[in-house]
Write a structure and sequence with these properties.
0% strand
Length: 202
């Protein structure tokens, strides 16, 4: 599958993409070939020339910033977009969120990307911004990406059924001064806010 097969002419866009390259680059890191990125986007179900090129542009910047192989990055971004129902027009915001956490928290962009994919099962409870923030919190505590994702998922799952938990859980909630009934209701309305409440009590 080639860009031309999708009716996408990448030649006029190559110069523009190179100009928009982020100012900071790690040694030996190359901006990905736009044609390969377009192909990767197409494999993930991105359709339409404008969407394909926008996705490729965002992926090229992210691949450079996070020092990841362009092909892998494009597919990972596509999977995350599908899991969290992110419109292609908002794909740049996904890159911005990951980049912000990479710069401002003790978590690497590549690990956040991995965590977001692993947390896809709770995408109905947390949008990608909240999932990235929660995952980054555990990463900043020193957890590996798989552990950070598992911990995040467990917290969402267990708090969502707080009233069904055992005596040990209920004792812990009481110690924190929290009500399982109120927490369960709160999780259905504002999962992230509820989780922050628990974390602040610990």
């Amino acid at each position: 599958l080639k860009p031309a097969d999708l009716g996408v002419d990448v030649a006029p866009r190559l110069k523009t993409l190179k100009v928009s390259e982020p100012p900071k680059r790690g040694a030996g890191v190359k901006v990905a070939d736009i044609a390969a990125l377009v192909e990767g986007a197409a494999r993930m179900g991105v359709q339409g020339q404008d969407n394909l090129l926008k996705f490729a542009r965002t992926s090229a910047k992210a691949a450079t910033a996070f020092e990841l192989p362009a092909g892998q990055l494009a597919e990972d971004m596509g999977k995350i977009a599908n899991l969290y129902k992110i419109p292609i027009k908002d794909i740049e915001q996904l890159g911005d969120v990951i980049n912000y956490l990479d710069d401002n928290a003790q978590s690497k962009g590549s690990d956040i990307i991995d965590v977001l994919q692993r947390m896809g099962g709770v995408a109905d409870k947390l949008n990608y911004k909240k999932a990235a923030a929660l995952g980054s919190t555990f990463l900043s505590l020193g957890a590996q990406s798989d552990v950070a994702a598992t911990a995040s998922i467990a917290m969402v799952r267990e708090l969502s059924i707080a009233t069904m938990q055992g005596k040990r859980f209920q004792a812990g909630m009481e110690t924190l001064g929290l009500s399982s009934e109120k927490m369960e209701k709160s999780m259905s309305k504002d999962s992230m806010g509820s989780i922050i409440t628990v974390l602040e009590k610990i």
